Amino acid sequence: MSTPGLLLEHHDAANAPKMLDLMVPVYAASHADIIAADPFFHPDKFRERFDSHIQGAGFELVTGTLDGQLIGYAYGCRRVADRASAIWDKIRANLPGFPTPAEPEPIFIFMEFAVDPGMQGQGHGHAIHNALLAGRREPIANLFVRPENPARNKYMRWGWQQLAREKGPFDDAPIFDSLIKSLS
């Protein structure tokens, strides 16, 4: 998808923290509907999770800027094979037709994705999403999305499939839909 003027940049764990102060306003704007209702989504909690997320193996952040302004980002990391086995087991149980390896393989965990609400619906989010997933060596990606989040429908159009509905991985996390996408 072509998005004229959108500059996509890749950042590793060493450089990603320099982007955090630019990311927080985009996060807050894109999560405004839920921030007041659920403390898990407060921007300070996002900062805490980000500090934890950048420790993940193979962490990668993709930022999208337009006219010098950050308008969106997506990031994630690799879950190594031994820690990914539970996800592979869930796939085998819930999606019997989905191809699975004989032994667990690493999975890319798509952790966060946000686009400024004023820039949504123009293809920028899809471009950021695709840039993060392009060239990944893991066979699949996994993400959590709130069931009522309008982005969930976009994920489904972009080839994601529902795996399960479950509590998120943090103690104070709400219930999410767990989605997977083949990367091969």
Structure description:
With 184 residues, the protein is α+β, with helices and mostly antiparallel strands. The chain has one domain: Gcn5-related N-acetyltransferase (GNAT) (Aminopeptidase, 3-Layer(aba) Sandwich). Helix content is 31%, strand content 29%. The protein has helices at residues 20-30, 32-35, 43-53, 81-94, 124-133, 151-157, and strands spanning 6-11, 60-66, 69-79, 107-115, 140-145, 161-167, 175-182. It has a 7-stranded mixed sheet with strand order 1-2-3-4-5-7-6.
Mean pLDDT across the residues is 94
Alpha-beta classification = alpha+beta
Q: List SSEs in N-to-C order.
A: EHHHEEHEHEHEE
Radius of gyration, in Å, reads: 16 Å
Q: Which spans have pLDDT < 50 for at least 5 consecutive residues?
A: none
Strand segment count: 7
Question: In total, how many domains does the architecture comprise?
Answer: 1
The portion of residues assigned to helices is 25-40%
CATH level-1 class: Alpha Beta
By DSSP (H or I, 4+ residues per run), the number of helices equals: 6
User: What's the end-to-end separation, in Å?
Assistant: 19 Å
In spatial order, strands of the major sheet run 1-2-3-4-5-7-6
Shape: globular
CATH superfamily: Gcn5-related N-acetyltransferase (GNAT)
Give the percentage of residues in beta strands.
25-35%
Largest sheet: 7 strands, mixed
In short:
The protein is 31% helix and 29% strand. With 184 residues, the chain is an alpha+beta fold.
